[in-house]
Design goal:
There is one protein chain. The protein is α/β, with parallel strands linked by helices. It folds into two domains: 112 residues, no CATH class; 281 residues, Aldolase class I (TIM Barrel), CATH 3.20.20. It contains 18 helices and 18 strands. Strand 10 and strand 11 form a beta hairpin. It binds S-adenosylmethionine and iron/sulfur cluster. Iron/sulfur cluster binds next to loops.
Length: 462
């Protein structure tokens, strides 16, 4: 069995160039590498969900819980995650529905059959809940779900209105990790992106929370925003260091969907976001900055300054772990199915009121599901380990992919070692593109084995 390299092209291999960091590929199309899956019909999704959650056993070693809070006070110009403008009444009604769904999902036999290793409250902006609601939410999770003793419970959000009271109540509720979107500390960049608060306010708040040393404080920084030059980005990195935060994500700005920024650029109200070539230079700067300050790299875009920051959810949810989704707009995967909840708040609320399914869409994951997850996790971590790739029809997947790895090595994107594939700086910048290409390469094998089989059947039938 062999991957036919003729079925792949430069969009998979990258071009041979003296500067692969900037020029190996044209641009990154999405934030995540997708996999192959088939939609389940509307009438089947609920019965399938019931059957995969009525089993009294733990299917995978790790499991996570994802709870979505689909509100933000203000929409940032670059963001595709925005769903609803927060108003007290909407948030309060939603919160009640969420508590009901938490109880329902907790009572499923599958839920109680094993422990959850990581819980993530994401959004939107979960910190737009009230302090009391945040404490209640943490307590509801801990009372209803079986959690491991070292379960990581992350609350995502912003520092705006994240008061001392909210921090105390979140800790009281059991949250033990906080992830704040900062994006950039620079006031001009922030204002043009419609971020709340100016530089000094955000700096001071992140520093004060980090100094408490009660739980890891992690921040997200974007690179490539309008007005965010290389110098501004370098100052963002210095600011991160100065705050004493325990970890940082550096995300390449990828504008898509209906994010308002492009319209503003078209109307000449703000300058364009950075080109891919400029973003590659920013990634290079960020990566060198972390190395210079001996900040430990946990993945291609995440760094930790202290052992307190483990980033469990991110590493588990991207691998073999099952993820149980709760709430409007939440997504997960369980029992070999991808599950996506209603994204419209009205539809979700009305489903909850009528006692109907909250699932909008369900996808049956393809035959390569486990291999795809391992590929995505490997590329995200920067190292693909032979031992962590499941076999494909009895063959070693690392060996099957080796011809592709070798082309990448010639294009300076990776270093092929006996049992490991190590991404270079250029490979790390293009990690999602490479993961997608590896998945497509494996899918050519699925297609060719399926074709061989059907030809075999024809021969038998004839
Ligand atoms: C779902 S958001 C929630 C964070 C929180 N609401 C906030 O604004 O601070 C999580 C992270 O996604 C990242 N993000 C949002 N829009 C992005 C884009 N267009 N490209 C890349 N990353 C993006 C940001 O870094 C953000 O902190
Ligand atoms: S970046 Fe955060 S606060 Fe801004 S619109 Fe997106 S989810 Fe909402």
């Amino acid at each position: 069995m062999k991957i036919d390299l003729n079925q792949l092209d430069d969009s998979h291999f990258g071009t041979s160039t003296p500067d692969p960091l900037r020029y190996a590929f044209v641009k990154k199309h999405s934030a995540h590498a997708g996999g192959m899956s088939m939609p389940v019909s509307q009438q089947d999704k609920e019965s399938i969900f019931q059957s995969i959650t009525s089993v009294n056993e733990q299917r995978t070693k790790s499991r996570c819980l994802y709870i979505h809070i689909p509100f933000c006070r203000v929409r940032c110009t670059f963001c595709n995650f925005f769903q609803n403008a927060a108003s007290r009444q909407l948030v309060d009604d939603y919160f009640q529905a969420l508590l009901t769904e938490i109880k329902q999902k907790a009572s499923l036999p599958w839920t109680q059959a094993g422990r959850f290793n990581a819980v993530y409250i994401g959004g939107g902006t979960p910190t737009d809940l009230s302090p009391v609601q945040i404490e209640q939410l943490g307590k509801a999770i801990r009372e209803n779900f079986p959690l491991t003793t070292d379960c990581e419970m992350t609350l995502e959000g912003r520092t705006n209105r994240f008061s001392d009271e909210m921090f105390e109540r979140a800790l009281e509720g059991g949250f033990n990790r906080f992830s704040f979107g900062v994006q950039s500390f620079d006031t001009k960049v922030r204002r043009s992106a419609k971020r709340l608060d100016d530089r000094e306010v955000v700096l001071e708040r992140v520093a004060a929370l980090s100094a408490r040393d009660e739980a890891p404080i992690v921040i997200d920084l974007l690179y490539g925003l309008p007005y965010q030059t290389l110098d501004v980005f370098e100052q963002d990195l210095i600011d991160f260091l100065d705050t004493g935060a325990h970890g940082v994500d550096l995300y390449q700005l990828v504008i898509g969907g209906d994010a308002p920024m492009l319209n503003m650029v078209e109307k000449g109200r703000i300058p364009s976001p950075a080109s891919t070539v400029d973003k590659a230079s920013m990634y290079e700067l960020g990566s060198a900055f972390m190395a210079k300050h001996h900040i430990k790299q946990l993945s291609v875009n995440h760094w930790a300054r202290s052992n307190r920051e483990r980033s469990q959810y991110n590493s588990l949810a991207k691998t073999y772990a099952e993820v149980l989704p709760i709430g409007c707009g939440a997504g997960g995967n369980i029992g070999g199915y991808g599950v996506m909840h209603h994204r419209s708040l009205d539809t979700y609320m009305s489903a909850m009121q009528k006692g109907e399914s909250t699932i909008a869409m369900m996808m049956k994951q393809g035959p390569l599901q486990e291999i795809e997850s391992a590929i995505k996790a490997g590329f995200d971590s920067g190292i693909i380990r032979r031992s962590q790739l499941p076999q494909f029809q009895g063959h070693d997947t690392f060996d099957l992919l080796k011809p592709v790895f070798e082309v990448w090595q010639r294009n300076q994107l990776v270093e092929v070692q006996e049992d490991y594939l190590v991404l270079t700086l250029a490979g790390s910048f293009w990690a999602v593109t490479l993961a997608q290409a590896a998945i497509q390469a494996m899918n050519t094998l699925v297609k060719s084995t399926a074709n061989n089989k059907s030809m075999g059947h024809h021969r038998l039938a004839g």
